[in-house]
Every structure is written in structure tokens, then in C-alpha cells.
Design goal:
The protein is of the alpha/beta class. The protein is 34% helix and 25% strand. It has 18 helices and 31 strands. A seven-stranded mixed sheet has the order 1-2-3-4-5-6-7. Strand 29 and strand 30 form a beta hairpin. Helix 13 crosses helix 14. The N and C termini lie far apart (71 Å).
């Protein structure tokens, strides 16, 4: 009865963005959500972590979505987990609707959908609602209601997302319970699950689950990455940090760094320590493929079960008592591999990454405040945030739909610039953004650089409205308004990154005028700088392309690095627009400039450009056949390259790339060389 009351209230209120959009879409006043399309090469794989714990991994080998966090194009996994106890069984999370059919078939084969007593929702989104409803429909009418456990924000969002016609069905098939940090769920056989709420502005409903029996942390969005399961590496981080380190870092940079302050609180609440005397989950067993992995996993649990400590659960209990921490044997995220071999290093790196991100916030900060209906504006906000952090400026992201006006006011007080973004709903910006904009216009320093962005279906009035109100309020814009029709493409995300970098640079310039210049971490003696400046390099032009996004830049920190295979290194500044196009696996061309012809090209490419402005417009170029990137017609030569490795080097990335193809264009020309007086600048 109580459940029915909650559902009825939710259907009457319908105050969330999703319901406003649905109502307007039905009346024809705004766009319908874009068709998710067919995801190529997807499947659901089952990975046995122990006799009673199983991972169900939705696997896709190509770029799943166009959000910035998928930029490495390594595919992804969408993971769920089953934990079976003597008294009950629990399913932890459901995947994106793209995997719904195959996922439910896997659940039925592994345990039977009717035998699930609990569903633990670590993070809810409308894209997972279809899978949840399909799971309920797959259960027989005689099965008891599925007990859904989640955080309170997730409960409210789930209830308000129910279509009116589905209320009675949902009430018959499921019950909802909101939990708090340290609330337990005993499944029997020692599987005492402990819940930890881990909210951030990005994931306000996030909930992690710790199994006291196995020491596995089901971390939801944290400690994840977007990398699909490769053959021979079925779901565990085989290859360790060398294989997945950059993936974890890139995921952190895109999604966690913009909420570093709240992420710090999450890490403190999780309070994790790695189990000592812990054999790796995968050691090799003389068997191949999945059979070999499962045999190796079983060795781990046999090791603990047969130990003098009385088994893994007892050993974990002793460690928890001695350390006062949640002692983990592995981390099971929603995306990417189960963290095993890199467990200690990932926890250390997360702490260090977050400490550096918080330090950036203390020095200078940009606020990114947005509302989002279908996630398109949120995708723009994430790309904009990455562009800001690339320029060495801290960013705080805030979804104004899920925050109070006083939170917006407090954020504006501690930042040095801001960007606001919203979709167009019924010809206007949504109410939460109107309220947030009111706080900004009331309290914000007019010298703060700013920018606006948004997505729309037909008209896009919200962007114009935000721009007009800020312009009338006396604010100056660091970049032109970004408008995205429906889903963002790679070019749109690239535009957002470049716009974010321009905003960050404008904020730093404004702070310098106020005498608030951020001092460099390193102090270089003038004589040392002059000495380093005598290191010379070839003057080149690097051109890269990914999808519909493309960029070129001057490059002089270039060197051949290997004979076999032919390879070279290129240094790319982190804030360069081309940086996000030269991730591992990316393609680029390098054109070597000719002595006597380089000066006008250097002058052209040294000019300031607006985001996404065509830098090659006044340069004679052609498109190479293999990489489809530009090369300069007047160059001495050009080579087509593939990025094999990236090394973070202070304020630059060092690319090691192999040469796939190349051509000498002018046999009589000499390569231009870049001479500098100081090693402190280009």
C-alpha cells in the first residue's frame, strides 16, 4: 500500500526534466529523444569470480557513444553482477537498454530471473529503465515482487520516470527501498553486503556495495574505464597498469576530475585498503580462454578457504578490525575490467589524481553549470570541463536540476569564471537554469569571463536567451555560444574542448590582471633556460582527424625514435586543440617544412584562432590516402603515423608513433630547423 502511494504521488508531480520533455514531445513542442540506434558487435559475457559471484559483462568493441569519455575508442563494457547466498540472491545493477535482451537471457541461464530476490541499483538513468522493466516482465506472475534497493535520490528519480500506464505493473512486480551508508543486507553464506552512498554532482544517486564475505567492492561508476574485453583477456585487468592505466586516467579526467571536491569525500567514505597476501585473480592454469580464467579464479578462493585463518571472510574480518578500513580483494566497476592486478596502484593513483585536482581548484576555478534532458547537454558540459582542465585550471561541475540556488551562489563566489548550458524546452530554457542564472546575475563579478552552450531539437532559443541575459548583465564572453542539434558529434565535442580551453585561458589572464597569477611549480634559472633553448628541432606541421573532427598545429619537438619499426616522438602541449585527436590508436600526418618556405606557414599557424576555425584555410594542403589527414603540398616530405603510446611529461604529452606510410615531396629542399633563445617557451 505504501508503495502504491509513493508511485501515485510521483505520477502526479512529474516535476523532473525527463517528464517535462516527455510531455512536450507528445505535444510536438520539442524534439523526441534520438533513436539510440543499433550498437555494432555487442554481446553479454559471463565471468565467474567465485562459486557465488558472477559478472555479466555487456561488451561492445567499437565506440559506444559520442560522449567525450569514450574518446579513446576502445569500446566499453556495461557490467552487472550476481551474488548468491544461502538465503537470497542479489543482482547488482542493470546495463544500458542496448544490452537488455542478451542480458536477460544471460540472467535466466545463470540463475533464473524468478530466483532473484534483490536488485541493487548503484546508479539509475532513463537508459537503464527499459532493461529494468524488461527484467520485471521476464519474471513470472507467481514470483514474489523483486525488492529493489537503491539510494534515496535514485528512488525518487526511478519513481518519477515511470510512465503512468506502467505504475500498476511496477507496483505488482517490485518494491522499492532506499538505503543509507552502512545499511546491511544479509544474503546468507556469509555474504553480508554493506551499502555506501557516494553522491557527486555528476552521479547524485551513486551507491557502492561491499561484500564482507569476498572483499569485493562493487564500485559502480568509480574506478571504471571504457575498454572492451579482448580475446584472451576476459574481464580482468590482465596486463595490469601497462594495459589499462591510461584508460583509467582518461576516464578519471573526463568524469571524476570535474567533481574532485565531492570525489574526495567519496574516497574517504569508501575507506579502502588492499588485502595483503592476496594471490592475483588470474595467474594462468595451463588452460586457455574463459576456462583457464575460471580455473585461476577458483584457486584464489580455494587459497583463502583452506588457509589457517579459517577462510577469506574470517581473514577479511581480522584485517578490517586491525586497520579500521574496508579491505578489498578486487573492485568490480560498472565499466571496464574487474580490478585485480592493478588494485593497489589504482587506489594510490586515484588519491594522487584527486589531490592534484583539488589543488587546481584552490588556485583558480571555473564553474560549469548546466541542466540536461537526454544527456546531450551533459555531454557538452563534460567536454567543456575537459578543455578547462587541459589548460591547467580547476573546474567544478554542477547540475542545477539537482542542486539548490544557494549551492549555485556558493559556487559562483569561489570561481573565477563560468559557463552555463541548457536544452531548449518549449522554446525556453528550463526552470532550474532560469533560477541558476538569476543567482549568477544577482551576485557574480562582471569581470568574470563566461560562455554559454546547449542542445536543441528545432530552434535552440535557450542558448540565445542565456547569451542575451548575460550580455545585458554586462558579462564578457570567452567563446562564441556552442549550439548542438540533437546528439553531439566528435566535431561538436572538439568544439566544446577548445571553447573550454579558451575560457580557462581567459580566466588566467583576468587573474593575472588582478595580481592573482598562479606561480609555476618549477623555477628555472635563466641560464638553464638559455641552455635548454639550444636544443633544436625540425619545423613540422601535425595534422590529425577523428570522425568529423580535425585539427592542425605547428610542431618542433619532433625526433626519430626507432628504426624497426620506423617510429618517432612528438611533444604535444596538453592544452593544444589537437591533443584529444592523438590518443593511443589515433592517426596523424607530419609534414616537414622546407627551409625558405616555412616562414609564412609559421606566421599563419601562430595566429590566434577561434574554436573549430579552419587553420588550414590559407595553406595549400592535400588529403593523404591512408590516414585521411592533411599534408602540406609545399613540404619537404610527409609521413602518416599511428600513435602507439602516450607518456605524460609535465605540461606536455610525448607521443610515440609508428610510421605507416610516407613520401618525399622535394628532394632538393632542406628541412627547416627551429632555433630558440630560451627553453621556457616555443
Amino acid at each position: 500500500m505504501q508503495m502504491q502511494t509513493h508511485v501515485a504521488m510521483a505520477t502526479r508531480q512529474r516535476t523532473t526534466m525527463a517528464h517535462r520533455v516527455r510531455a512536450m514531445a507528445a505535444s510536438g513542442t520539442t524534439q523526441a529523444p534520438p533513436n539510440p540506434g543499433v550498437v555494432p558487435q555487442k554481446d553479454v559475457r559471463v565471468l565467474k569470480l567465485s562459486d557465488e559471484t558472477v559478472a555479466l559483462r555487456g561488451n561492445v568493441r567499437e565506440r559506444f557513444k559520442f560522449e567525450v569519455e569514450y574518446g579513446k575508442k576502445r569500446g566499453t563494457t556495461d557490467n552487472a553482477y550476481i551474488v548468491r547466498g544461502q538465503n537470497a540472491s542479489a543482482l547488482i545493477d542493470v546495463p544500458d537498454r542496448a544490452f537488455a535482451e542478451a542480458f536477460i537471457q544471460a540472467v535466466e541461464k545463470e540463475i533464473g530471473v524468478d530466483k532473484l530476490q534483490f536488485l541493487i541499483v548503484g546508479h539509475f538513468s532513463p537508459k537503464r529503465m527499459d532493461t529494468l522493466m524488461a527484467l520485471l516482465k521476464a519474471r513470472s506472475k507467481s514470483a514474489p515482487p523483486l525488492q529493489i534497493i537503491c539510494s534515496n535520490p535514485s528512488k525518487q528519480l526511478l519513481l518519477k520516470s515511470l510512465e503512468r500506464k506502467m505504475v500498476d505493473f511496477f507496483t505488482e512486480r517490485a518494491t522499492l527501498k532506499a538505503v543509507r551508508t552502512n545499511d546491511p543486507l544479509d544474503l546468507g553464506s556469509g555474504h553480508l553486503l554493506t551499502f555506501i552512498t557516494t553522491p557527486t554532482p555528476r552521479w547524485p544517486d551513486a551507491l557502492c556495495t561491499y561484500d564482507n564475505q569476498t572483499g569485493l567492492l562493487f564500485s559502480n561508476k568509480f574506478f571504471g574505464c571504457h575498454a572492451c574485453d579482448q580475446e584472451g583477456k576476459p574481464g580482468v585487468d590482465i596486463g595490469g597498469w601497462d594495459e589499462y592505466g591510461e584508460d583509467w586516467n582518461y576516464y578519471y579526467e573526463c568524469l571524476v576530475k570535474p567533481v574532485a571536491k565531492q570525489a574526495s569525500v567519496v574516497l574517504e567514505k569508501l575507506n579502502l585498503a588492499v588485502k595483503s597476501e592476496r594471490p592475483p585473480l588470474y595467474k594462468g592454469s595451463g588452460k586457455s580462454g574463459m576456462e583457464g580464467l575460471e580455473a585461476s579464479l577458483q584457486k584464489v578462493w580455494d587459497f583463502f578457504a583452506g588457509g589457517s585463518s579459517g577462510g577469506l571472510a574470517e581473514s577479511l574480518a581480522k584485517d578490517r578490525k586491525a586497520t579500521g578500513k574496508n579491505v578489498v580483494t578486487g573492485i568490480c566497476p560498472m565499466h571496464g575490467p574487474v580490478v585485480d592486478r592493478s588494485l593497489q596502484q589504482l587506489l594510490i593513483e586515484y588519491g594522487e589524481w584527486n589531490t592534484l585536482a583539488k589543488k587546481m581548484l584552490d588556485e583558480v576555478c571555473v564553474a560549469v553549470i548546466y541542466a540536461s534532458a537526454y544527456g546531450n547537454t551533459a555531454a557538452l558540459a563534460n567536454a567543456l570541463s575537459r578543455g578547462i582542465t587541459k589548460a591547467g585550471v580547476g573546474v567544478e561541475s554542477l547540475n542545477c536540476e539537482l542542486s539548490k540556488p544557494e549551492e549555485v551562489e556558493a559556487l559562483i563566489e569561489r570561481c573565477g569564471g563560468f559557463a552555463v548550458g541548457a536544452p531548449t524546452l518549449g522554446g525556453h530554457m528550463p526552470t532550474p537554469m532560469q533560477m541558476a542564472l538569476g543567482e549568477i546575475l544577482k551576485d557574480c563579478d562582471r569581470s568574470y569571463p563566461c560562455g554559454v552552450f546547449g542542445s536543441f531539437g528545432w530552434s535552440g532559443e535557450a542558448v540565445d536567451e542565456m547569451e542575451s541575459r548575460l550580455k545585458d548583465g554586462g558579462f564578457n564572453f570567452a567563446f562564441d555560444p556552442v549550439r548542438c542539434k540533437f546528439k553531439p558529434t566528435e566535431a561538436t565535442l572538439q568544439l566544446c574542448e577548445e571553447s573550454g580551453t579558451d575560457l580557462a585561458q581567459a580566466v588566467k589572464k583576468a587573474n593575472n590582471k588582478k595580481g592573482l597569477k598562479v606561480e609555476s611549480q618549477y623555477s628555472v634559472d635563466r641560464g638553464v633556460a638559455q641552455a635548454v633553448g639550444r636544443v633544436v628541432g625540425s619545423l613540422c606541421v601535425l595534422s590529425a582527424k577523428s570522425g568529423d573532427a580535425k585539427q592542425i598545429m605547428l610542431a618542433s619537438w619532433v625526433s626519430q625514435a626507432s628504426f624497426d619499426p620506423p617510429g618517432l616522438t612528438v611533444a604535444v602541449a596538453k592544452e593544444r586543440a589537437v591533443e584529444s585527436l592523438v590518443l593511443e590508436g589515433g592517426k596523424f600526418n607530419l609534414s616537414m617544412l622546407a627551409e625558405g618556405k616555412a616562414k609564412p606557414i609559421v606566421k599563419e599557424l601562430s595566429k590566434p584562432y577561434r574554436p573549430q576555425e579552419d587553420r588550414s584555410m590559407n595553406i595549400a594542403t592535400e588529403v593523404s590516402e591512408n590516414s585521411q589527414c592533411l599534408y602540406l603540398k609545399d613540404a619537404v616530405s610527409y609521413v602518416e603515423c599511428t600513435v602507439k603510446n602516450r607518456l605524460e611529461a609535465g605540461d606536455h604529452y610525448i607521443l610515440y608513433a609508428t610510421v605507416d606510410n610516407g613520401k618525399l615531396l622535394d628532394d632538393g629542399a632542406t628541412t627547416a630547423v627551429h632555433f630558440r633563445r630560451s627553453g621556457s617557451n616555443y
